[in-house]
Design brief:
Structural class: alpha+beta
Radius of gyration: 28 Å
Number of strands: 13
Distance between the termini: 49 Å
Oligomer: single chain
Shape: globular
Strand content: 15-25%
Length: 509
């Protein structure tokens, strides 16, 4: 008999315990406790096989003597979880993260003839009023694809499909270094994390020596790795970002020791070799294909810019308090949400990881706004009764695969390993919800240059910390100057903004 599935006779009282927090006091009456204990022993008696007794025939007294402590422990654990789940469902509480049970709860006695009472703290979805969703003022940046953009994309592809050459020293911008990395964290006993395949890309000049290592941003990456060679041990030190998804890293001293085992430099493909690699007949076909793909990305980024303005508006116009104890799962979800967005826009994996490292460096206020936006968009999606089906998920995965020049099956397998399929579904729902607002917004078309000025001004205000609104996403700078070959290559290695759209795509809050 599945005792955990039975409905219990319980008493539940709920009290507020801070912003979006509740404390549940649950009492299981004595008669229910007796039923759970008897049921647990009954199940054991049917399944037990003891020497000298047929299955299901062992004396109850012998079972209680030999297995009593174990049976009581299991019955208590099952009863606690069953009572908790029933309390949540019967009171329609939308729980965020995991419940917080008292440490001493599993040592509390479960006795026949005695009621069992316990408390549990939970965080629930914040309650808030949605702002007006019609007639939002939206600016749509308008820009044309030029031949220079096609040239830049060809240079990027030459490096992306270029030939790696093994090197041992004399590292320079865009060189790739691989080795074993060991991560030590303040107050954490033993090694926190280690991997044999840590990748470090020597920063291009335009990144001012900054770069990511294992998802953390280091301002002195170039200085630390400069002059090293294969076989050397390089030590990176930083302080964990206060908004990192792993609580153990927040505001803690972090040391990464990298033993360089391999290094390579990419030699770009010749144009005719690149054309053949992509299965095209000549440069004309290559340029036409790139133009079509660039126009598709432009349209996607135009829509993304409109959605970002919706997110800004919603954050500005919505008042809600987050629970004080934000779970790691929620922070990690906000990071994965951004990962899916960058992949959808066609960013390469290394570029994605760099931008995620930069996002982890954002202020606490910006991290809080990212989490607020998750709750806001969830509620708006429910308001519009938006859903997602398998066909839409498969289509989104296929689009990501095309932008990465990979097979959809390979991308799906990668996402399945990391739990990314669920994030793809969430991204689709979020996009559809934001698009509903855009479709009924008041849209004004503006030149790309004007859009860039507005976005850059917001970015300056944020960095200056005066007059800026931390609820607004940061804008990436765009440029009208043609990139050099190295700058074009840095799009793969260091996540520079794609020049193909001549506009600024803002980071999400």
């Amino acid at each position: 008999m599945d005792t955990a599935a039975e409905e219990l006779n319980i008493d539940v009282s709920i009290e507020e315990d801070g912003p979006s927090a509740r404390k549940l006091s649950i009492t299981v009456p004595a008669e229910t406790v007796d039923e759970r204990i008897e049921s647990a022993y009954g199940t054991l008696q049917m399944q037990a096989e003891l020497p000298g007794f047929r299955k299901g025939r062992a004396p109850r007294q012998l079972l209680e003597k030999r297995f009593g402590s174990q049976v009581i422990d299991e019955a208590r654990g099952q009863m606690i979880m069953a009572a908790y789940q029933q309390a949540i469902q019967s009171h329609e509480l939308k729980v965020v993260g995991d419940p917080e049970f008292p440490d001493e709860l599993m040592d509390k006695k479960l006795e026949r003839g005695t009621a069992f009472a316990f408390e549990v703290s939970i965080e629930v979805t914040p309650e808030f009023e949605m702002p007006e969703l019609e007639g939002v003022d939206i600016k749509k940046p308008i820009f044309e694809i030029e031949d220079s953009h096609i040239d830049d994309e060809i240079e990027r592809l030459r490096y992306r499909f270029g030939s790696p050459e093994q090197i041992t020293d004399g590292f320079q911008p865009l060189d790739r270094v691989v080795g074993k990395a060991v991560v030590d964290v303040e107050d954490h006993e033993g090694v926190f994390f280690e991997t044999d395949k840590a990748l470090v890309v020597y920063p291009p000049k335009e990144d001012d020596g900054k770069g990511p290592v294992l998802g953390l941003m280091f301002d002195d990456l170039e200085k630390t790795i400069k002059g090293s060679k294969v076989g050397d041990e390089v030590v990176f030190k930083t302080v964990g970002p206060p908004a990192h998804e792993r609580q153990e890293l927040r505001d803690k001293n972090v040391t990464i020791t990298l033993t360089i085992e391999d290094a390579e430099r990419i030699t770009p493909l010749e144009l005719d070799t690149l054309t053949a690699t992509l299965g095209l007949e000549d440069e004309t076909m290559l340029r036409e294909r790139i133009r079509l793909e660039t126009e598709t990305r432009r349209d996607q980024e135009q829509r993304a810019a409109e959605r970002e303005q919706v997110f800004e508006y919603l954050l500005d116009q919505t008042s809600l308090e987050l629970p004080k104890r934000i779970s790691e799962a929620q922070v990690a979800r906000s990071i994965e949400r951004q990962r899916m967005e960058l992949l959808y826009r066609g960013e390469d994996p290394e570029a994605v990881e760099k931008q995620l490292a930069e996002m982890r460096e954002q202020t606490q206020d910006q991290a809080i706004n990212r989490l607020k936006l998750l709750f806001i968009m969830d509620k708006i999606a429910r308001h519009f009764e938006i859903d997602v089906n398998d066909q839409e998920i498969n289509g989104r995965i296929a689009m990501i695969a095309r932008q990465r020049n990979e097979r959809p099956e390979a991308v799906r397998a990668e996402l399945q390993k990391t739990g990314g399929i669920q994030e793809v579904a969430r991204q689709i729902v979020e996009h559809k919800a934001a698009d509903r607002i855009v479709d009924q917004a008041s849209v004004t078309e503006i030149p790309a240059e004007e859009w860039n000025k507005i976005a850059q001004e917001k970015s300056k205000q944020r960095k200056a910390g005066s007059g800026g609104d931390d609820s607004k996403p940061a804008a990436k700078k765009s440029t009208s100057k043609k990139k050099s070959t190295k700058k074009a290559a840095s799009k793969d290695a260091s996540a520079k903004k794609k020049k193909t759209t001549k506009k600024t795509t803002k980071k999400k809050s």
